[in-house]
Amino acid sequence: VIYVIFIALSIWLIFLGSGRHIEYIQYVLTIPTIRLTEVVDFAAHILYTTALFVCRLSGLVFYRRICNGRKKFIIITNIAAGFLVTAYLPQVFLLIFHCLPVTGLWPYAWQLPDVNNFICLQWGVVYVVNSTISVVCDLIMFSIPSMIIHSLMLSLKKKILLALVLFPGVL
Predict the structure, then answer these.
(1) Which class for 34: exposed (0-12), middle (13-18), buried (19 or more C-beta within 10 A)?
(2) Residue 146 to residue 142: CA distance in whole angstroms
(3) From CA 65, how far away is CA 58, in angstroms rounded?
(4) Are 109 and 115 in contact (CB under 8 A)?
(5) Which residues have C-beta within 8 Å of that of residue 170, sequence separation ≥ 6?
(6) What is the rounded CA–CA span in Å between residue 58 and residue 127?
(7) Per-residue pLDDT tens for 105-159?
(8) CA 121 from centre of chain
């Protein structure tokens, strides 16, 4: 459901002209349209980050179910869940508090007087931090099925076939 809303917002952003070159945004789009795209983009980022978090937790529940009763993997999935929650919170807070006072806008330097009303982080910093946290979470999610497959008493061929089933879901 979260992804469906995110996709709808993304399509709306495309129709509004978001994602184009800065010259188009600055000289063609109207200020009300730019403000609208900033707010919709802000909401889309929060939804996307939340959707990734929910999908990762869903994956952990799946891993936990297929390792039913194996204490080692229950501990690993609990630690991973704790890390995912710990990683999700700064991602969302960084998005929400990217400007002070808090706003859905992300004013460009040429957007006067809006730019003077806020103290904002550069969008590149927010994206790099959130992307780095996301990659670390993905690596953790990738390592768990690797450990599960490695621990199984199966032939190499069966382990490879099982990896072909489990790993695409991680990617």
Answers:
(1) buried
(2) 7
(3) 11
(4) yes
(5) 59, 138, 141, 142, 145
(6) 24
(7) 887 777 767 677 888 888 889 999 999 999 999 999 989 988 888 888 889 999 8
(8) 18
